[in-house]
Design brief:
Elements: E1 3-7, E2 10-12, E3 18-25, E4 34-39, E5 46-51, E6 57-59, E7 67-72, E8 77-82, E9 91-97, E10 113-117
Parallel strand pairs: 2-10
Antiparallel strand pairs: 1-3, 3-8, 4-5, 4-9, 5-6, 7-8, 9-10
């Protein structure tokens, strides 16, 4: 049974920073490319950053240079450091296997963590 627990969201002013955490269990997520996704109001869930088991990261253009994804397979945790936040970053953020659609065992999501960027 896969389990994903996201935390670290909150209310921050434009230009501020937050670090999101995702603790995984139940499935050997350390074997998979992991991703941080977000769902903005009225929009579909989108992948914003991903990281391979050997730490190769990739980013959506809108967050390049501002967000940093990292992982520690020993503690089953994936992080998303978010700097210079913008109002358009407001969303619920989730983590999951980047190719979550490839297998039904990855179709279960955590509760997500709300990030609100507002003055």
């Amino acid at each position: 049974q896969e389990k994903l627990v996201e935390s670290g969201g909150g209310l921050v002013q434009p230009g501020g920073s937050l670090t999101l955490s995702c603790v995984t269990s139940g499935i050997p997520y350390n074997l998979y490319k992991m991703g941080w996704f977000r769902q903005r109001p009225g929009k579909q869930r989108e992948l914003v950053a991903s990281i391979t088991p050997d730490d190769k990261a990739d980013y959506q253009d809108s967050v390049k240079g501002r967000f940093t994804i990292s992982r520690d397979n020993h503690v089953n945790t994936v992080w998303l450091q978010m700097n210079n936040l913008k109002p358009e970053d407001t969303a619920v953020y989730f983590c999951n296997v980047a190719n979550w659609h490839s297998d039904p065992i990855f179709h279960s999501w955590g509760q997500g963590t709300q990030v609100t960027v507002s003055s």
